[in-house]
Amino acid sequence: MLSDIKQLIEDENISLALTASGEPTTREFMIAATFVIFSAAKIDDEFSDRELIKIVSLLGGEFGLEDFESGEILETVELLHNASSQLEGYTAQVNGTYSTEQKQKLLSLVWRVILSDHEILPSESKFAINLRTILGLTLEQAAVAQAQAEMDLR
């Protein structure tokens, strides 16, 4: 497993900016991926400044967005989340678009947001466990994703 963690960290080519088939990610899909991440941040019914800053940073890094573009996507996602917190439609889009490695990266991004306030609540942990199952990731892949997120904090 340690070699898997090292490989994931060393492989900087894994990006959410392209689909598994190599096509550029559309704005619609950026919204779907952000919805998944945002749902993790809101699972405890709070949305802290640290979580907001972390999500904006992650969107910039993954999709090459400026802060104002990330803000626009977050506003859209918040409206969608408030209207319907149904995660299934967005995770179905993720499953149909991303490779296993990209899904693992998305789970790592979710863990980065969860860890951004330096506290893991049971509801957040349960969300990550359920997301792993929905994304079809193994326990080992999920452990690697979480370890990568934890290393990012250091």
The top level CATH class name = Mainly Alpha
Catalogue the unreliable spans: none
CATH superfamily assignment?
TerB-like
- Secondary structure class reads mainly alpha
- Terminal CA distance reads 20 Å
- Strand proportion: under 5%
Please provide the ordered H/E string of secondary-structure elements: HHHHHHHH
Q: What is the helical fraction, as a range of percent?
A: over 70%
Contiguous helical run count: 8
How many structural domains can be distinguished in the coordinates? Answer: 1
What CATH calls the topology is TerB-like
Q: What's the main sheet like?
A: none
Beta strands, count: 0
Lay out the secondary structure.
Elements lengths: L1 H9 L16 H16 L6 H15 L3 H17 L4 H10 L2 H16 L6 H14 L3 H15 L1
Helix pairs in contact: 1-8, 2-3, 2-4, 2-5, 2-6, 3-4, 3-6, 6-7, 6-8
